[in-house]
Write a structure and sequence with these properties.
transmembrane helix, mainly alpha, 354 residues
């Protein structure tokens, strides 16, 4: 971390290109210094730091797993087959809640877009973000959450590929070697997945690749000191742009979805609760991501993210009762092990470089 750089002016993206993210989550900066951390979101109830951190991590797990399960329930079991419109609702929710969090709750200082060039860069990131989230939500129509999470764990593999193709960034042989079990695990899991669906698999891979591409492109576009935005501010600007991008697609592909939703709500008001709750939890994923890193570190978030994929897979199997095989679980385990090895290899390569 550059000493002259203050936390409140950092852009939301961690310059490292090895961070694996979850669906609908923006990358976040490293933990700020203690004195700055205490100035944002102080502990009003005087909870012990350990208890507060445990509550925040629990909230992060619940929101991440919750949005996955809600998406799966809506798109597969409830019969609400409008993944693009659902993603647009998520973006509108993130825009509204981000505005309230920054302007009223003052979780972080408000930062402004300073130029047309900066706006166009944020717009480009919004488009990639849209592609990733829509593909991820669409895949849940066809794949169980457990398999979806297994594929999502391969994000480091795609990040390394895009970093090499776009920035010509080369990793050490140890780092590339660690990616082999990541890919091998998915091959094993795919061959033994009872509910394998080719289209669902392809769009899920597209979602994972989109997340990786966004991380790499973000590291290139928002590089100057004047353009760096905190993760909460970047979400404030990206979310409404993403909703605007998605609007024509949902109208063209999914038809008059708003009228269909209103008509469905007249016969079953529970759909309103599901959609509002789903959109709110989608924002909480980003908020708790920020809070976990604020109270722990970006590295802790990465470790928790690796464990989250396994927890989400287990919870989804228990709730939705989708069939699993021993080979499928073994493949998932190999992939997670590869991600852990990749993270360790990246850390060692950075220590060697410096």
């Amino acid at each position: 971390m550059v000493e002259a750089q203050t936390w409140t002016t950092r852009r939301m993206s961690n310059p490292r290109l090895d961070t694996s993210t979850t669906d609908q989550v923006l990358d976040i900066p490293p933990t700020p210094p203690g004195e700055l951390r205490n100035s944002f979101g102080s502990n009003p109830n005087n909870l012990s730091p350990t208890l507060l951190t445990a509550l925040i991590i629990s909230s992060w797990y619940l929101s991440n797993i919750g949005v996955l399960l809600l998406n799966k329930y809506l798109l597969s079991f409830y019969g609400y087959r409008f993944p693009i419109f659902l993603t647009m609702l998520h973006m509108l929710s993130c825009a509204a809640y981000s505005y309230a969090s920054i302007n009223f709750l003052e979780l972080v200082p408000l930062q402004h877009i300073h130029s047309k060039k900066q706006f166009l860069k944020i717009f480009a990131l919004s488009a990639i973000f849209c592609f990733s989230v829509v593909c991820g939500n669409t895949s849940l129509r066809y794949l169980p959450v457990s398999f979806n999470q297994a594929i999502g764990a391969t994000t480091p593999f795609f990040t390394a590929i895009f970093a090499f193709l776009i920035t010509c960034k080369k990793e050490t042989g140890e780092v590339y070697l660690a990616l082999l079990p990541v890919v091998f695990g998915i091959v094993v899991a795919s061959n033994s997945e009872p509910l394998f669906h080719l289209f669902g698999f392809l769009v899920c891979v597209g979602s994972t690749a989109g997340r990786a591409l966004k991380s790499v492109v973000q590291g290139i576009l928002l590089t100057s000191e004047a353009e760096k935005l905190h993760s909460m501010n970047l979400l404030l600007y990206m979310a409404p742009l993403a909703a605007m991008i998605l609007l024509p697609f949902t109208l063209y592909i999914e038809g008059n979805v708003l009228a269909l939703t209103i008509e469905k709500a007249k016969g079953d008001p529970f759909i309103v609760f599901l959609l509002l709750g789903n959109a709110t939890v989608a924002y909480l994923v980003n908020l708790t991501n920020f809070l976990v890193t604020k109270h722990t570190s970006a590295l802790t978030l990465q470790v928790l993210g690796n464990a989250k994929a396994a927890v989400a897979a287990v919870v989804s199997v228990l709730i939705f009762r989708n069939p699993v095989t021993v080979m499928g679980m073994a493949g998932f385990g190999i992939t997670i092990m590869g991600v852990v090895l990749y993270s360790e290899a990246k850390k060692r390569s950075k220590v060697t470089t410096h």
